[in-house]
Write a structure and sequence with these properties.
Blueprint lengths: L7 H15 L9 H4 L19 H14 L14 E4 L13 H13 L10 H7 L3 H5 L2 H13 L4 H14 L15 H12 L3 E9 H5 L2 H5 L6 E11 L6 E10 L5 H9 L6 E4 L5 H8 L6 E6 L20 H9 L2 E4 H4 L12
Parallel strand pairs: 1-2, 1-5, 2-3, 5-6, 6-7
Antiparallel strand pairs: 3-4
C-alpha cells in the first residue's frame, strides 16, 4: 500500500496516536435544567445552569461571563466577538484508555474484514482482525497508517458519516459499558449551554478527525457540523453519472493539533476566540492564542485528577499529557479545573446516583 503520510507533520501526528494505542493493551444528553435535581441548585436560576460545578470555579466562570455581557462594563464583549472554543478529547468527553476515534478504526477493520479477504495477506491487518494486538503493534507506524487508511478513506463523506453514527449507536466503552457518546462530561455540557444562553458561539477545535466528530457533535453537545474544526484527510470531487460526490482520500490535509489549532481557528472561524477550554499540552497554543488577545479573555484547563469516577493523569501520561499547561496556568490566569474537587458529577448517566 502507498505510504499515505509523507509529510513530517504526519509522522508526529501518527506517533502520538500510536503511543496512545500501545498503552491500552448516542443518546443525546439532557440539558442542565432537565438533568440536575432541583435540590442541587442554589436558588439562583442563572447559577443553577452550572449546577454540577462546585462554587469556586462556577463563580469564577459566571463572574467573567457577567462582566463580558454587561454593557458599559470594562470587560464587555460585543456579541459578534463572543467566540468560545473547546478541545474535544479529554475536554468534552473522555479519551482513555485509547482515543475513541482509534477504537472506531479498530472496530471498523473487524466489521469490514469479511468483505475484504485480501486483507489477510497483510500480516498487520490480519493480526488486528484476529485480535492479536501485540503483533499488530509490532508493525509500528506503517501498521497504524494502513488501519486508518482503510477505515477513513475510499468512500463518500456520507458513507463515512453513516458508519460513524452506526458505531456510536452500538459500540461501548470498555470500562463503563456505556456508548461512547455517553462518555461526555456533564459539567462541560452545562458550560456550553450557559455560554450559548449568553450569546456565545461555541466551537470544537480538536486534533481528532473533523468528519468523525461532525457525525455526532450536534446531538451530543448542540454544536453543529459547521462549528467543528479538526484534523482533515484529503477529499476528491467525483462527478459520477448518478450524483456528484466527495470521496475521502487517505493523505493528511491538515493536522489540527498544538500550533495547528490557532491556524485552524483562523482558517475556519476568522476571529481570535475570547474563551478557550482544553485539557492537555496539545491545547496549549490555542489557550495561549486566546488569552493574549486584547480585552477580556478566559482560559480553562480540565485537569484529570479523579481516579475513581474517571482516570487520573497529567504530566507523565501518554494520552492527554498536561505538563507545560500546568506550569504556565498562573502566568496566563487559566482556570485549572480539578475534576475530583470541582465537579459534583462527571457523566450525565451519574445523575441518578446519590
Amino acid at each position: 500500500m502507498k505510504n499515505i503520510f509523507d509529510r513530517k507533520i504526519t509522522s508526529k501526528f501518527l506517533y502520538t496516536v500510536l503511543v496512545a494505542f500501545s498503552v491500552a493493551s448516542c443518546s443525546s444528553p439532557k440539558s442542565a435544567d432537565e438533568s440536575i435535581p432541583a435540590s442541587e441548585t442554589d436558588g439562583n436560576e442563572q447559577r443553577g445552569q452550572l449546577a454540577s460545578w462546585q462554587d469556586e470555579p462556577r463563580d469564577r466562570i459566571m463572574d467573567w461571563v457577567t462582566s463580558a455581557t454587561t454593557e458599559g462594563n470594562s470587560g464587555f464583549i460585543p456579541i459578534a466577538d463572543r467566540i468560545a472554543v473547546f478541545d474535544n478529547d479529554g475536554t468534552l468527553w473522555s479519551e482513555q484508555p485509547i482515543y475513541f476515534q482509534l477504537a472506531f478504526a479498530i472496530d471498523e477493520v473487524k466489521r469490514m474484514a469479511p468483505e475484504h479477504p485480501e486483507w489477510k495477506k497483510n500480516a498487520s491487518i490480519k493480526a488486528l482482525i484476529e485480535g492479536d494486538m501485540d503483533k499488530f503493534l509490532s508493525g509500528g507506524q506503517n501498521a497504524l497508517v494502513e488501519a486508518l487508511a482503510i477505515t477513513h478513506s475510499g468512500m463518500s463523506v456520507e458513507e463515512f458519516d453513516s458508519h460513524v453514527k452506526a458505531w456510536m449507536n452500538t459500540a461501548t466503552h470498555p470500562k463503563s459499558g456505556k456508548h461512547y457518546n455517553e462518555m461526555i462530561y456533564q459539567p462541560m455540557l452545562e458550560l456550553l449551554d450557559y455560554l450559548r444562553a449568553n450569546d456565545f458561539k461555541t466551537f470544537i477545535v480538536s486534533g481528532g478527525g473533523i468528519d468523525f466528530m461532525r457525525a455526532w457533535t450536534e446531538e451530543a453537545y448542540g454544536i453543529p457540523p459547521y462549528q467543528v474544526v479538526g484534523s482533515q484527510l484529503g477529499l476528491s470531487y467525483v462527478d459520477s453519472l448518478a450524483m456528484p460526490e466527495l470521496i475521502k482520500t487517505p493523505e493528511l490535509y491538515f493536522n489540527d493539533d498544538k500550533a495547528g489549532k490557532p491556524v485552524g481557528i483562523y482558517r475556519h472561524i476568522g476571529k481570535r476566540p475570547v474563551f478557550a477550554g482544553g485539557n492537555s499540552d496539545g491545547d496549549y497554543q490555542m489557550l495561549q492564542y486566546t488569552s493574549t488577545g486584547e480585552g477580556s479573555r478566559f482560559g480553562l484547563i480540565v485537569h484529570h485528577t479523579d481516579s475513581v469516577r474517571e482516570v487520573a493523569y497529567d504530566r507523565d501520561s501518554h494520552i492527554g499529557q498536561l505538563n507545560k499547561g500546568l506550569d504556565d496556568a498562573a502566568k496566563y490566569n487559566w482556570l485549572v479545573v480539578d475534576m475530583q474537587k470541582d465537579w459534583k458529577v462527571v457523566y450525565p448517566f451519574e445523575m441518578g446516583n446519590p
